[in-house]
């Protein structure tokens, strides 16, 4: 009986300790002295969070502006997004038609003290390029150049952890350069380097690996789904002609896969396959990273693995 009382007393004491510590007020984290970084969409967000080691960084706050999964081309910033941009110490964006809407915000007089990093201009300058594909983030070689620029900009606003940022950037860009080599090696080994995109074509920069690429559209449409655009009679006629041309090519070059992006309704891909009478042809989805949400990023989606998945679909 005495032993039972002792065990009962110990249990009550243990439970009381748990209750005491669970009810104890938690220390509030002061965010007021942290420098703030605003980036436009997922690829830039993933590069930046990797370089700053976001989960363990007590100096910087990172904000992803396009976080809801809309096409970045047609994205409209909310008042909250604009406020985040204006309050940021560093703003990082593509700098081309992908996110040109941000240029007017960062030019405002009240934002003159912040650093704004235009990645397209920076990559062209650092690599000595006259032209850069609009969707350059889909090429790991250009991604590595972007990360070097991002690391330099981060150090400007928060120099106390310069060594950390330089080391994490070096580790990450080594992985990007390795992935670039994998792209070159894999595509070089393909028996058929001809591929067809049945809607938009954001993978222009992959041509440097030796792919022979053709697309139903020359440029990336503004709307999320090209078939949803209001088309004139002439545009519809031109679309039918392109479907006919690509159907012929599908048969002549013995192409067994048609590619679309993650936002495609696959309508044009199916039209090409039907026109070619090639039911065995596959429709494969490549991730352009246009529409990755913050929630997907939080639960593990990463730039490197997304491109690795894309590469597998070329094999």
Question: Beta-strand level of the residues, as a percent range?
Answer: 5-15%
Mean pLDDT: 85
What Rg is obtained from the alpha carbons, in whole angstroms?
25 Å
What's the β-strand tally?
Answer: 8
Low-confidence parts, pLDDT < 50 over ≥5 residues? 13-29, 222-228
Q: Label the structural class.
A: alpha/beta
Amount of helix: 40-55%
- What assembly state would you assign to the polypeptide chains in this entry? single chain
Strands ordered across the widest β-sheet:
2-1-3-4
- SS element count, helices: 11
The termini sit apart by: 73 Å
Task: Give keywords.
11 helices; globular; alpha/beta; four-stranded parallel beta sheet; 315 residues
Kindly describe this structure.
Strand 1, helix 2 and strand 2 form a beta-alpha-beta unit. Strands 2-1-3-4 form a 4-stranded parallel sheet. A 4-stranded parallel sheet has the order 6-5-7-8. Residues 13-29 and 222-228 have low confidence and may be disordered. It is globular. It has helices at residues 2-23, 42-52, 79-86, 102-106, 119-127, 140-157, 162-188, 233-252, 267-276, 294-298, 303-312; strands at 35-39, 60-64, 90-93, 115-118, 194-197, 212-215, 257-261, 282-286. It is an alpha/beta fold.
Helices and strands in order, then pairings?
Elements: H1 2-23, E1 35-39, H2 42-52, E2 60-64, H3 79-86, E3 90-93, H4 102-106, E4 115-118, H5 119-127, H6 140-157, H7 162-188, E5 194-197, E6 212-215, H8 233-252, E7 257-261, H9 267-276, E8 282-286, H10 294-298, H11 303-312
Parallel strand pairs: 1-2, 1-3, 3-4, 5-6, 5-7, 7-8
Helix pairs in contact: 2-6, 2-7, 5-6, 6-7, 7-11, 8-9
């Amino acid at each position: 009986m005495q032993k039972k009382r002792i065990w009962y007393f110990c249990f009550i004491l243990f439970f009381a300790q748990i209750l005491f510590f669970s009810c104890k007020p938690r220390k509030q984290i002061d965010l007021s002295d942290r420098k703030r970084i605003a980036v436009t969409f997922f690829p830039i967000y993933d590069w930046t969070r990797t370089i700053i080691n976001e989960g363990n960084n007590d100096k910087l706050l990172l904000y992803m502006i396009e976080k809801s999964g809309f096409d970045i081309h047609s994205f409209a910033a909310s008042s909250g997004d604009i406020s985040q941009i204006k309050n940021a110490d560093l703003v990082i964006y593509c700098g081309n038609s992908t996110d040109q809407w941000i240029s007017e915000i960062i030019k405002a007089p009240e934002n003159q003290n912040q650093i704004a990093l235009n990645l397209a201009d920076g990559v062209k300058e650092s690599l000595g390029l006259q032209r850069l594909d609009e969707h350059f983030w889909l090429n790991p070689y250009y991604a590595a150049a972007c990360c070097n620029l991002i690391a330099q900009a981060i150090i400007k606003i928060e120099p106390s952890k310069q060594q950390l940022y330089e080391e994490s950037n070096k580790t990450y860009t080594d992985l990007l350069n390795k992935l670039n080599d994998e792209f070159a090696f894999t595509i070089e080994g393909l028996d058929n380097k001809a591929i067809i995109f049945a809607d938009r074509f954001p993978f222009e920069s992959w041509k440097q690996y030796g792919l022979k690429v053709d697309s139903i559209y020359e440029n990336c449409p503004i709307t999320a789904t090209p078939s949803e655009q209001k088309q004139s009679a002439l545009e519809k006629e031109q679309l039918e002609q392109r479907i006919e041309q690509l159907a012929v090519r599908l048969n002549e070059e013995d192409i067994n896969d048609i590619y679309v992006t993650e936002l495609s309704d696959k309508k044009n891909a199916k039209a090409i396959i039907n026109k070619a009478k090639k039911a065995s042809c596959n429709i494969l989805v490549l991730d352009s990273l246009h529409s990755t949400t913050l929630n997907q990023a939080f639960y593990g989606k990463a730039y490197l693995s997304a491109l690795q998945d894309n590469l597998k679909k070329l094999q």
